[in-house]
Input
Amino acid sequence: MLELNHICYSVHDQDGELGILKDISLTIEDHRLVVFTGPNGGGKTTLAKVIMGLVQPTSGQILWNGTDITALGITERARLGISYGFQQPPRFKGLTVRKLLTLASGNEKLPKELCCQFLTKVGLCANDYLDREVDVSLSGGEVKRIEIATILARDAELMIFDEPEAGIDLWSFSRLTETFEQIHSAGTATMVIISHQERIISLADEVIVVGDGSISHRGSAQEILPKILTSTIGSCPVLTKEGAR
Ligand SMILES: Nc1ncnc2c1ncn2[C@@H]1O[C@H](COP(=O)(O)OP(=O)(O)OP(=O)(O)O)[C@@H](O)[C@H]1O
Output
C-alpha cells in the first residue's frame, strides 16, 4: 500500500517561493489501477517523481507497505519494488534493447522468448528491435514503448507510467491498454498511470484529478469521466474545484 501524507513541494524562483504540490494526501491500496489526470502543469509528473524519489518533497511523508521511504533515493525505492517510466524516456547509446531488458529484469540469462513477450506487450516485433541500440536512431514512440517494456521486465510491485500514450500509434496503443488490463486483472502489481486519454482513464479503479498542485477530484472513472468530457467552463474545466460544484 502506498500512502502520501501532506506532501508539499515548492521551489524558489525570482518571485519567491512557488508551491508546486500543496498538501497532497492519498492512499493507494495494493493492486489498484489509479489514473492521475488533470490540466497541463497541474503537478502530476512532480507527484509521480516524488513517489519514485526523483524529487524530494519539501514536507510530508511517503509510506510504502508501511515503511517510511521519504528519505530514500530512487535506487533504494527501485529495490523496494517501485518503478517509473518517464514522460520522455532517456536513450542509452551503446545498449541494445535486449541488454536493457536483461538489466531491467535482473536476470542475466533472460531468455530471448521472454524479451520477445515484453516487446510484444507494447506492440513491438522483437525480431526488429532486440539487437538495436536504444539511441537516437529510434523514434520517440519506439523509445517510449521500449521503456514501458523494461518496466514490465522489472516486474515491479508498483508501476508508475507517465503518459504512456504519448507518441504511440493507435495499434500499439490498443495493445498497450490490453497489457494494462491484463496486469490489472492478474492482480500482480499496483499501477499509477498519468494520462489524458479517455481509454486509459476508463480502465481505472480510481481517477485522481490533480490541478494547481492539489487533488481537486477523485472518484471512479464513471464519476469523473463525464465531468471531464462535458465541462466547458474555462480552459480546463472540471478540473477546478468550482467546476465540480
Ligand atoms: N523545478 C521546477 N522549477 C520551477 N517550476 C517547476 C519545477 N518543477 C515543476 N515545475 C512547475 O510545476 C508545475 C507542475 O509541473 P508537472 O510537470 O508536475 O505538471 P503535469 O501536471 O505533469 O503537466 P503535464 O500534463 O503538462 O505533463 C508546472 O507549472 C511546472 O512548470
